[in-house]
Specification:
Glutamine Phosphoribosylpyrophosphate, subunit 1, domain 1, globular, Rossmann fold, 13% strand, 24 helices, 559 residues, six-stranded antiparallel β-sheet, alpha/beta, disordered N terminus, five-stranded parallel β-sheet
Length: 559
């Protein structure tokens, strides 16, 4: 980097070499990258042949479809950027006139002189499971959010951080009939799958298949496009509904399928293991609760030699979200206001520990959400918003926070076990398409379901029932009539409270078993789901029990 007349900003790239990141140098451009290797070559060419300013960088990135995160250095600039789902996190810090960039928040923390815990970030984690905005748990350690870039030019006194794509930008609207959008969706999905197949290059593709639409779509499209080296698996307690449906779908597509049985005893033992603890350190980025969803089943498959070294895991995340499946009904009313938006975000997201939702905290949460949306919009957010505006803002908030921080972070499981992976339903073109679709066609996944019904490959989408039972077949025979009886005798409210105890043996059961029945029962009034306990446990393992205590919660796992 050249010396600036005002200040000299030194730069250092600090990487965890055990991660999925790689390094190459081309024509004087140093590139650290994760994801698409071919895209890293395109980046080198772009940086060499373009005058890099925020607008040129932003315009170019907005058209990319690959899965990637990039850190690059030329003689003129240092750049870093994430893709349309923040596939691989990037962290940075500016301290003592030195810019540090890393793929590992812990390595960054080790190289900083001073880092203090941010109490507001601990609150975010307890309430949501992750830190909002660009912060992490520690001061002076920032994260690049989804569709963001960092640019430090030789003539700059500080790095510029900006967005190259705004999810559901209200200023851009696309007109078209339902038939037009269905036709476009068909093309977009096929193009995404074709790109996936090209990247796979005949390697083994393994699809974790559940009872939902998205994994079914991915598996069916791979079969339709003639991919041969293909298999699927499901997991969980014996007899669970997702596995039953996954087995049937795989059989109908003539795809080899296997089941990974996960018992309560295995779950508890594994959560206490060093492997799980090492994974937590690897995956959390000091900003989000580690996503354990696939950890134990992948561990078992890998240990038993059932995944080859070139295996590519391809799951269906997050087709349900992008296609409009998370839009709250209340926001579709013409009477909906900004307050309805705030209430829905509170109810859905800030709810892991009910005790945190005091009047004071609620005011702070509302201020934080509003500030976030205003910053994204770069104009005022007020009560003149239409129901379409409110739905778009709701999805944007979830996109930038929960989806691309917690949900996509589940891919760290595959990185931890040195497995390749792809997310065809987070393909750049797929994301941009849904941002063009009017709200009325996204609500309740109207367009998505109409497309699937019209395609109906192998009759897999003709009579799809979106409701997946939380219970095994055996449990359902007892719980369903019991629920009806309790409602008639005790009323709905007391029924719901008692039935909540059955969560321990529902599809969440395996997660609750990580902590045992006693912990579950003692906290049943306050917790939303098992992730409430996972978050508490994770913060205690980080040594932040005192901050938990200051927020009025008992640090359950403080040793």
């Amino acid at each position: 980097m050249q010396k600036n007349n005002k200040k000299l900003i030194k730069t250092a790239i600090i990487l965890n070499e055990l991660s999925a990141w790689k390094y190459k140098e081309k024509s004087g451009v140093k590139i650290w990258y994760a994801g698409s290797e071919s895209f890293s070559q395109e980046v080198a060419g772009f940086l060499l042949n373009t005058n890099i300013v925020p607008k040129t960088l932003s315009d170019w990135l907005a058209k990319c479809n690959e899965s990637y995160s990039i850190i690059a250095e030329t003689k003129k600039e240092v750049v870093a950027f994430t893709d349309y789902c923040r596939s691989y996190p990037i962290f940075y810090s500016l301290q003592d006139n030195e810019l540090l960039i890393s793929n590992d928040a812990r390595k960054l923390k080790d190289n900083l002189k001073n880092t203090n815990v941010i109490a507001e970030s601990v609150f975010d984690c307890l309430a949501l499971g992750y830190v909002t905005g660009s912060k992490t748990l520690y001061s002076n350690i920032n994260q690049l959010n989804v569709c963001e870039y960092l640019l430090l030019s030789s003539d700059s006194t500080s790095p510029a951080v900006g967005k190259y794509y705004l999810y559901h930008d209200r200023r851009n609207k696309t007109e078209g009939s339902e038939a037009y959008f269905i036709s476009r969706l068909a093309d977009v999905i096929d193009c995404s799958v074709q790109r996936l197949i090209k990247r796979a290059n005949n390697a083994q593709i393994v699809v974790p298949i559940s009872g939902g639409l998205d994994s079914r779509l991915v598996l069916a499209k791979l079969v339709e496009h003639g991919y041969k080296n293909l298999s699927a698996f499901s997991y969980g307690p014996n007899g669970n509904a997702d596995a039953r449906i996954g087995k049937d779908v795989s059989a109908q597509l003539d795809v080899p399928w296997e089941f990974v049985s996960i018992s309560a005893k295995e779950t508890k033992s594994f959560y206490q293991s060093e492997t799980r603890k090492e994974y937590s350190t690897f995956a959390d980025g000091l900003n989000v609760i580690p996503n354990y969803q696939d950890l134990l089943p992948i561990y078992k498959l890998k240990k038993e030699g059932r995944l080859s070294v070139d295996t590519i895991i391809v799951n269906g995340q997050s087709g349900d979200f992008n296609s409009g499946g998370h839009i709250p009904e209340s926001l579709m009313s013409h009477e909906a206001t900004l307050n309805h938006l705030l209430l829905e975000l509170m109810k859905k997201h800030y709810s892991l520990w009910g005790k945190l939702l005091t009047e004071n905290n609620t005011i702070k949460i509302h201020e934080n959400i509003t500030k976030h949306l205003i910053n994204a919009e770069k104009n005022s957010i007020n009560n003149d918003l239409t129901s379409d505006d409110l739905a778009n803002l709701y999805e944007r908030w979830e996109f930038e926070e929960r989806q691309t921080k917690y949900i996509v972070n589940g891919q760290r499981v595959y990185d931890y076990f040195s497995l390749n992976w792809q997310l065809p339903l987070w393909d750049g073109e797929f994301v941009r398409f849904w941002c063009d679709v009017p709200v009325e066609l996204r609500y309740k996944q109207k367009l998505y379901r109409k497309y699937l019904a019209s395609w109906n490959y192998k009759a897999l989408f003709k009579e799809f029932n979106p409701t997946i039972s939380a219970w095994s077949k055996k449990a359902s025979f007892a719980i369903v009539p019991l629920s009806l009886l309790l409602r008639l005798t005790l009323g709905r409210e007391r029924r719901d409270y008692l039935i909540k105890y059955f969560d321990y043996i529902s599809r969440y059961g395996n997660h609750y078993h990580s902590f045992g029945l006693k912990t579950f029962a003692e906290n049943i009034h306050e917790i939303k789901n098992p992730f409430s306990l996972y978050t508490m446990s994770w913060l205690c393992e980080l040594g932040l029990s005192s901050y938990v205590d200051e927020l009025g919660l008992d640090p359950l796992f403080d040793k």
